[in-house]
Structures are given as C-alpha cells and as structure tokens.
Amino acid sequence: MTDELRNDCDVLVVGGGAAGLNGALVLARSRRSVVVVDAGAPRNAPAAAVHGLLGQEGTPPGELLARGRSEVRSYGGRVVDGEVATVARDGEGFTVGLADGRTTRARRLLVTAGLVDELPDVPGLRERWGRDVLHCPYCHGWEVRDRAIGVLASGPMAVHQTLLFRQLSADVTLFTHTQPHPDGEQAEQLAALGVPVVTGEVVAVEVAGDRVTGLRLADGTLVAREAVTVQSRVVARAGFLGGLGLYPVAHPSGLGEHLPADATGRTTVPGVWVAGNVTDLAAQVGAAAAAGAFAAAQVNLDLVLEDTRRAVAAARTPLAS
After folding, report:
1. Which of 48, 187, 205, 274 is deepest in the core (most CB within 10 A)?
2. Using alpha carbons only, what angle is made at residue 303 by residues 239 and 290, rounded to the nearest 5 degrees?
3. CA distances from 16 to 37, 42, 82, 269 (A)
4. Phi, psi of 36 (to 5 degrees)
C-alpha cells in the first residue's frame, strides 16, 4: 500500500527505514504533516532477521518496516513509494522532485536514505551477502558462532573485524587478499589468538548446496570456510542533495562516505537534518531508530520556533482599517 503524494507538508522524510519511520512517527504524533518517501531498497533486505533490537529480536526486516509504516499512518503520516531525485531551495522551504516526475514542497527535510554497500569484486560474494557473507558481528555473529569463518581483508579495519569475530569462534582465518600482510602489533595479536593469515588474492567464493564452502585463491588453492566476513565500503545515498550544495564526504574511519551533521542531526544547510546510516556508518537498527526520533524532535522544535516568530510578528502588525 502506498499513499498519495500531497502538494506540501511540514516535513518530508527521505527514506523509510528505521530512522525515517521512527522520525516520521515522532513528527506525526506532534501533529506535523509528514510524508515519508521510500525507494523500497532497505540496506538490510538480504538479512533474514533483525538482531540486537530489544523487544524485536529475530523480527524479519520487512515485517518491522511494515509495522512502522502502519504506526506512522495511524497518526496521519503518509508513506509514499518513490525515489527522490532532486531537491531545490524554495523560499524558506524546499521543492522535492521524484524520479517519476512528481513534485512536492516541504518546510523541512529529514534525510534518512541510508547507505550503499560496495563489496570487493570477488565472484560469489555479492550473491551470498546478508546470508553467509556478513560484515557485522553484532548483527549476525551469533548465527555463525563456532563455525569456520574467513575474514576477507578489504580495508584498514580487517584485523579489527577479525578480533571481533574471533570472540565468536575459535576457527577464524584472515585472508589478506589485496591488502598488506599484518605486521607489528597486529601480527602479534593475531598470533596470540591463534588466527592463521592466508596471503594471496581471493578469486572466488565457492558455494555448494546453497551454502559457502570456502574461498578460492588465485593459485587454485581452496581454503574451506563456512562463513565469510568482509568490510564493505559504504557510500551515503545523498546525490539528490547536490542542488543544495550538500555532498557526502570521507568518513574519518576510512570506511566510506557520509553526510556530516552536528549532534542534533542538523547539517550545514538550513532546514536539512540527517539521521541513521546516512550520517552514522556504524548505527544498527536500534541506534538508527533512536537517531531518527531525536532528529525529528529537533525538526519539530525548529518549526515551533518559526511558527511562534510568525505569530508574534502577526500580533504586532496593526490590522488594516
């Protein structure tokens, strides 16, 4: 079910994941006219369940989002299927254009469009993503506990990721792939924990019977593994904000690009807030939802102050005779 896009609203939320829907819920309960525009491509769609979220442990991602949409609508909010393509300043607000040609106007924007995961170009990796090719020990680590895990190095956090998954299994192997071989303190840490390091480029994720069986090296060697972890490079879904001069920038962690904001979610562009993974690369579902709620409260406060200023100005203006 999708709602009709209205001509204007107090707040347009870009992205209907946990951050966007929780933000929209807070705004709708504050009696704001709010519209969520969702492209229908949640980052966690390949996952079977949401984990680490109190009260919702094991809930399928699609089911959680369906509940969220229903709750937003129950307070008068609208959820519209579509993809935001352009945003332009329109007086004190914004004109928002969708990819299908529809347009609307909003006084404020809450951008919660999330991230795109860019994986190493290794055959079989993308096809198993979210199943037995994983990235987060807190999201999926329990499900691969005590199994043979291979960590495919793809960036500066490979050893860090290895240490986290070593907590979950005694059988963890680091594959350097195209990254430098660990040395110094990192090499000492891996040796102390009994983590083998395999050098050489990985050219394929081998699969049999709908499960990962190992990683194939360029020299033909197959190293048996039951699960693979890899740190994707992540990029904020924010190209539509270019018309406002707002662009993703490199994250200090080196893991990708994000939209920077202050502690309230406010960006450098007046009237635009961000929440969730689009600004916080490490946020899980619970943290993203909380950030959406907090940013929404700041947006509502900003509108309250603007409405109050207008009311004061109107009260001071003598009535025309």
Report:
1. 274
2. 65
3. 7, 8, 10, 22
4. -100, 125
Per the listing, tokens 């003598």 go with: 318
Distance separating alpha carbons of residues 255 and 190, to the nearest angstrom? 22
Q: From residue 300, how far is each of 30, 37, 60, 160, 173 by CA, in Å?
A: 8, 18, 31, 39, 49
Q: What is the pLDDT along the chain (321 residues), one digit of tens a residue?
A: 788 898 999 999 999 999 999 999 999 999 999 999 999 888 888 888 899 988 999 999 999 999 999 999 999 999 999 999 999 999 999 999 999 999 999 999 999 999 999 999 999 999 999 899 999 999 999 999 999 999 999 988 899 999 999 999 999 999 999 999 999 999 999 999 999 999 999 999 999 999 999 999 999 999 999 999 999 999 999 999 999 999 999 998 888 999 999 999 999 999 999 999 999 998 999 999 999 999 999 999 999 999 999 999 999 987 655
Q: The tokens 């050219």 sit on which residue?
A: 203
Phi, psi of 168 (to 5 degrees): -100, -15
Tokens of 176: 């350097």
Where does residue 246 rank: exposed (0-12), middle (13-18), buried (19+ CB within 10 A)? buried
* Closest to 159 (Cα-Cα) out of 128, 198, 190, 130: 190
